[in-house]
Amino acid sequence: MGQLEVVGMKVPYNYLPEQFSDPETFFRLWEPLIRSGEFTLGPYVEAFEEKFADFVGSRHCISTNNGTDALILGLKALGIGAGDEVITATNSFYASAGAIAAVGADPVFADVDDRYQIDLASIEQVMSDRVRAIMPVHWAGASPEMAGIVAFADTHDLAVIEDACMGIGGSVDGRHPGTFGAIGAFSMHPLKTVNVMGDGGMVVTDDDDLADWMRKYRNHGMTDRDHIEMWGVNMRLQPLQAVVASHFLDQLPEVLRSRQQNAELLDTGLAPLSPRVVTPARVHNSAETYSLYIVQVDNRDDLITHLHHQGVDAKIHYPIPLHLQVAASSTRRPAATLPCAEKQASRIVTIPVHEYLNRDQVQHIIGSISDFYGPKT
Ligand SMILES: *Cc1c(COP(=O)(O)O)cnc(C)c1O
Questions:
Q1: Atom number of ligand 1 nearest to Cα 191
Q2: Nearest CA to ligand 1 atom 2
Q3: Is 199 in the pocket of ligand 1 (CB under 6 A)?
Q4: Ligand 1 pocket residue status of 67, Cβ below 6 Å
Q5: Most ligand 1 atoms within 8 A of CB, residue of 72, 88, 189, 288 to mutate
Q6: Which of 96, 200, 328, 352 could make an S-S bridge to 188, C-beta 3.0–4.6 Å?
Q7: Per-residue confidence at 331, pLDDT binned at 50, 70, 90?
Q8: Do 89 and 137 touch, CB atoms closer than 8 A?
Q9: Does any ligand 1 atom lie closer than 6 A to the CB of residue 184?
Q10: How many CB atoms lie within 10 A of CB 33?
Q11: Under a CB-based contact definition with an 8 Å cutoff, are residues 95 and 144 in contact?
């Protein structure tokens, strides 16, 4: 924990300098790998894959370069390509839609509910006979109503590929995000709950054939050094990162405990400001990863300026929903109006909730927001 000054207390969003303040830890962890020379896949990557599959309760884990590759790998394994449509959430990060477009398919955007999760009613509204799959996003580290989405997909013979990039360590109805559909994709980008020192990702599946295909495609389609069964690519996770990932996976329960504590403090501390500040609704059937602590507020842009002056690093995830991005104008089907996401885009702000915040910093966030909205009337 950093020493706090009375004046000029800063609440940074980025915790990486603290997380990596002791490089020696990593040098020690890396030493056997470096001496082994196992730098393309190999035992360190396999060990991490087994550990992660075990952790989420899936039969197979195939690691990748990053979360975007994980989504692309999953979509390709499901045979999704040109002429197909895939429904995803309009409030997601670019990569959900980008991965769909990367395999030649068209993203179709659905609206979200007041927990920022893809909304089944909206999925039903944007259905067409070109839709082949649904890509629900576990946005912010919370989860959509997976049971309903999976039931809908089954009825319409659609594949479900989950974007669980923010969901590592969460649970819904006792199951880990990413294990409801045929394939789940995860990211270990520096600001996810399990992160590496750069990029990393993985897919999980219970299906042996899909797993086999993805393992080969990720590594040039190789069955062995001299034979390829299909044209593939190189999407391999770096073994150096597999070692980092394995280390941080061990620490995840502790990380999530402190994020949850911070989120509870924020929930309670900000509750009196309702309805000018609306804290996230919590549901009892799920455990969240608190990847993003998003509130909806009046007068958002001025609040952010105020918070920055107070040394609180607030952000917006994201000010423009995917269906309103210029990139979306090239898709075949004109996007529907998605009123909830559009309204939220002008009201949302993300405040720091990470595990390196201490109590004083969390109180400083609450105090700064309370000051902005003035005394309770
Ligand atoms: C981070 C993220 C991605 C992309 O993962 P990368 O590892 O950065 O490629 C995709 N979808 C969501 C919801 C994410 O949060």
A1: 1
A2: 165
A3: yes
A4: yes
A5: 189
A6: 200
A7: confident
A8: yes
A9: no
A10: 18
A11: no
Structure tokens at 158: 């659609």
Q: State which amino acid sits at residue 143.
A: S
Q: How far is the CA of 374 from the centre of ligand 1 (A)?
A: 37
Where residue 6 falls among pLDDT bands split at 50, 70, 90? very low
**pLDDT classification of 333: cutoffs 50, 70, 90:** confident
Cα 289 to middle of ligand 1, angstroms: 15
pLDDT for the residue numbered 31: 98
**How many angstroms separate the CA atoms of 278 and 133, rounded?**
33
pLDDT higher than 50, residue 334: yes
Question: Rounded to 5 degrees, what are φ and ψ at 85?
Answer: -115, 145
To test the pocket of ligand 1, the residue of 63, 86, 163, 203 to mutate (highest count of ligand atoms within 8 Å of its CB) is: 163
Nearest CA to ligand 1 atom 14: 165
Calculate the CA dihedral of residues 228, 230, 232, 237 and round it to 10 degrees. -60
How far is it, in rounded angstroms, from Cα 144 to Cα 154?
17
What is the C-alpha to C-alpha distance for residues 169 and 252, in angstroms, rounded to an integer? 7
